[in-house]
Amino acid sequence: MRRALTIVIALSTAAGTWAQEVENLPFHEYDPPSTLVVTEHPLTRAKYPFIDVHNHQFGMPDQDLSQLTAEMDKLNMAVMVNLSGRGFRRVTQTDGSTRFALRDSDYLEGAVANATNNAPGRFIVFTNIDLFGIDEPDWGERTLRQLEADVANGAKGLKIYKNLGLTAKDGAGERIAVNDPRLDPVWAKCGELGIPVLIHTGEPASFWQDKDESNERLLELIERPDRYRDPDIYPSWEEVIGEQHDVFRKHPRTNFINAHLGWMGNDLERLGALMDELPNMYTEIGAVLAELGRQPRFARDWLIRYQDRVMFGKDSWRPDEYHVYFRVLETADDYFDYYRRRHAFWKMYGLDLPDDVLKKLYYKNALRVVPGIDPTLFPDG
């Protein structure tokens, strides 16, 4: 130990300023180009037409869809599911605070009409509900009427945002739990109407952990400090996720698409056990590809085992980022970059999924779960 320490001191003295600069280098700036020389198979187009079940297009009623569909064609994206069919608008309340309120039915009707008239078959629209006023006597009845009307006007599913369980509060200022009984009629109505619920609950568990050297999402919390979930303010990750699973158990006749691998992409064995228990729960890979890409052997086996339950999702419209999804899912490449370092402070590896599994992930599973998708857009449709 004494000899090693002497060598370090000697090197530091000899290196002088250089050693100081290295010592003061922020950890997130250390990102040397890899010297690894291997065969690469970058992809810009999916092998099969695919359905993106997790995307957002705001302003769709008035949107020119021609450029968007042209970009979709380049990727081989056959159908995009717009989860923000109702949209939200900022409202200033009497106390001066602001909140996001659901837009009226004309907005959703306009989104469906624009897609139907100007890009037939290419878009599926989900509706949304407003939790504001949940403790008003007629909230439940109003919300169920809205759901029925929205489905009659073309909505094919319901998207629930992450505010439920985290930040949404009722009139008494109490947090609205994901399994709040006032929401039970909503989940049941979706089952009756035959539409799935794509639900985003919670965040990565790392957002609740201490912001220190042991947190693998530390870079993200540095860049986006608002994503930290202070345990003195928020319920625990386990509590929120447990509330979600309780909903799935209570409503077996409703299909739920658990967004972002249920934030269990880092523990696929646990997610698999949940899927074994809950046949009405599906999931998708939006914004969690990095979890799969760092465990290629286990993730490949897992996706083969649960090939009937997982769908393709992305969560944001940045066309070039899809290229990494294709490469992880379709190739056997080694050690390549993810597209956003704060999500993955590590490298990706290809899963080289079998064709029959790829087809299910890309489109077959969504065809079974999401109503209204034209099967003739796909090879065996």
Q: Can you offer a commentary on this structure?
A:
It is a single chain. This protein is α/β, with parallel strands linked by helices. The chain has one domain (47-376): Metal-dependent hydrolases (TIM Barrel, Alpha-Beta Barrel). Helices cover 36% and strands 10% of the residues. It is built from 13 helices and ten strands. It has helices at residues 2-15, 17-23, 65-75, 105-118, 139-152, 184-193, 218-223, 237-250, 268-277, 289-293, 296-305, 322-330, 355-369; strands at 50-55, 77-82, 88-92, 98-102, 123-125, 158-160, 197-199, 256-258, 281-284, 310-311. The strands form three sheets. The protein has a five-stranded parallel sheet with strand order 6-7-8-9-10. The chain has a three-stranded parallel sheet with strand order 1-2-5. It has a two-stranded antiparallel sheet with strand order 3-4. α3 links the parallel β1 and β2. α1 (2-15) packs across α2 (17-23). The longest helix has 15 residues, at 355-369. It is globular. The protein starts with a helix and ends in a 12-residue tail after the last helix.
